[in-house]
Design brief:
With 320 residues, this protein is an alpha+beta fold. It contains ten helices and 16 strands. The protein is globular, with a radius of gyration of 25 Å.
Length: 320
């Protein structure tokens, strides 16, 4: 037999029941609505590789790619994507054990609030901008060098910046800017503004041709997107990674149909040829690829499938 509750407990139970009926359920935890800083980490031989996210930007790729809009939209739909396409902007931090090297720097303040997050990502990854020894640019478009400077000061005060001479000759030339179409002048102005503090400090250096820029890292020409577009081949203990810059922009379209180029390519034919040459080689030798505009962290492998390529993203790792 169950005994009757004492009067105090009966009153407490009644009060609780009334409160449950009269009051709405407690609200769930508030939505954060902001992403975490973006970084990934993996090892390449003895080198530590840390992809860094500068954020994303929406691109109307159906208007930018050199194929009909309906084909672009159909290819995106197959990948559960749509236009405008939210596109990653990635940079890569390489710790060789003796140097800390950053390849590209994101957009800085040039492209609005959805980009310019590289320093936040870097600090979350455990590094400070003062620790960067060298910065290598794949090319001088604003979304790759914008993070070099903040309020006309060097964002990486101890770093030397390096780029292909062809890029410097193109984008740091006042004469070239003067004769450029109005829509292109911003690229020149941004390049000059981002690099000016390093030039004044004697911390901007160029290179020509395929050359080793640091032990284990070789600059390799891949012009077409820009006159001096450069890829960087990173090797350690028999493992190889190629940082390809802007050889590809829209994975869902251009892996399946690599002949498609984008309006940002200065020389469409040369850009497509550079992509095919590097992709064929990477598919043959199993090189790891790091792409500036592939979905973050932008790292994976390629497999040839006829005239197309299959993208195989890296597996998540805790560096064991």
């Amino acid at each position: 037999m169950i005994r009757a509750l004492p009067s105090t407990l009966r009153l407490l139970a009644a009060a609780c029941a009334a409160a449950c009926i009269a009051s709405p359920a407690l609200a769930a935890a508030p939505m954060a609505k902001t992403p975490a800083p973006g970084y990934f980490r993996t090892m390449l031989g003895d080198f530590e590789i840390t992809p860094l996210s500068d954020g994303t930007v929406d691109l109307p790729v159906e208007k930018l790619l050199t194929q009909k809009a309906d084909k672009t939209q159909a290819a995106l739909a197959k990948a559960h994507l749509k236009t405008p396409l939210e596109t990653s902007d990635n940079a890569y931090l390489i710790n060789t054990g003796s140097k800390l090297i950053l390849v590209d720097t994101g957009a800085g303040a040039f492209f609005g609030p959805t980009l310019g997050k590289l320093l936040t990502s870097m600090k979350a990854a455990g590094y400070a901008p003062e620790q960067v020894d060298e910065v290598y640019l794949t090319h001088m478009h604003s979304d790759h060098l914008g993070g070099l400077a903040a309020q006309s000061k060097m964002a990486f005060p101890n770093a030397t910046v390096r780029a292909a001479k062809q890029e410097a000759d193109q984008w740091l030339s006042q004469a070239n800017m003067d004769k450029a179409p109005a829509d292109d002048k911003g690229t020149y102005k941004n390049a000059m503004a981002a690099l000016d503090p390093y030039v004044k400090a004697g911390k901007f250096k160029t290179f020509e041709g395929d050359v080793e820029v640091s032990p284990g890292i070789r600059a390799q020409g891949g012009h077409g997107h820009t006159p001096g577009h450069t890829t960087y081949v990173v090797e350690s203990r028999g493992q190889k990674m190629i940082l390809i810059g802007d050889l590809i922009h829209v994975a869902a379209v251009q892996f399946e149909n690599p002949a498609v180029t984008i309006g940002f390519d200065g020389d469409q034919k040369a850009a497509a040829a550079a992509r095919k040459k590097l992709f064929d080689a990477a598919a043959r030798d199993g090189s790891l690829i790091g792409g500036a505009h592939l979905q973050f962290p932008g790292m994976g492998y390629l497999r040839s499938e006829g005239k197309a390529y299959r993208w195989i993203p890296v597996n998540y790792t805790q560096m064991r």
